[in-house]
Prior knowledge:
CATH topology of the largest domain: Rossmann fold
Mean pLDDT: 89
CATH superfamily of the largest domain: HAD superfamily/HAD-like
Bound molecules: magnesium ion
Number of helices: 9
Amino acid sequence: MGSRHRPQTLEIRVNPPRPLFSDWPRLARRLRTTRSRVLLTDFDGTLVRIRRRPGDVRLSMEIRRLLLAIRDEGSVVGVVSGRGLEDLVSLVALPGIWYAGSHGYRLRDPRGRMISFATLAERRRIQRAIGWLRPRLGHITGVKLEVKHASVAVHYRTASPLAARRAEEAIGRVLEREPGLRLLCGKKVWELLPGDTIDKGTAVRRLLDEIHAPADRFVVYLGDDTTDESVFRKLRDGVTIVVGRRGNTAARYYLHSLADVREFLLRWLKITREAAGKGSRQLKSRHRRG
Ligand SMILES: [Mg+2]
């Protein structure tokens, strides 16, 4: 039976991602010539280093300035995260950009308008799960419950193996009680979402609909975690980049580290500035001729 299935397994195998900068001349040409540039990125592990306590992360001044300059040069910029939207907005704290929080359940446009995708039934389902988990996990050392708008995260980065196992058991039980819940496994965090129709991939698609990006748009998405795979799978016409790992991903490219992400942002800014300069020089010469 195994041998009969083997060819099929080979067929569906995903191609491993390529190093992004190895394909840079081609990507740079597309970035230079497109009418619409969209830069979307995950936050934790992509723009900032992951900390033992999620509240301790800080976006560096340099990355902040780069993202603002990229926005000022006319690119659409968006940060897409599993964090609650308010938490994300306060940590990134950049005006005039898009935010997607709670794994895509909430979207905030550059003017601050909020869109929520959680139904009342879904929010009630999460409230019941929180009510059940809190007395069972709230007192366990190293296990932290984070309540969000439409989900609940159980962090265990600082938990002992025994404490983590107890938390895992509780999550297994709550999934039996509320079969509509969806479990996401991130880096030292389990997260319960209220259903299975919304993820980062649907949030990105919705964002692209909202901005009416033309067909020749150049869309990039950067992310480091398993929860970013929904975007890597769904954004077929985009440049998808996984940060820090190379195996088991649907992303087309990879970058080694956060330092490479910074280098990528620098290159993006340089090219868009050059493209704008070229455009204005052309305008000036046309003006002189006229
Ligand atoms: Mg991440």
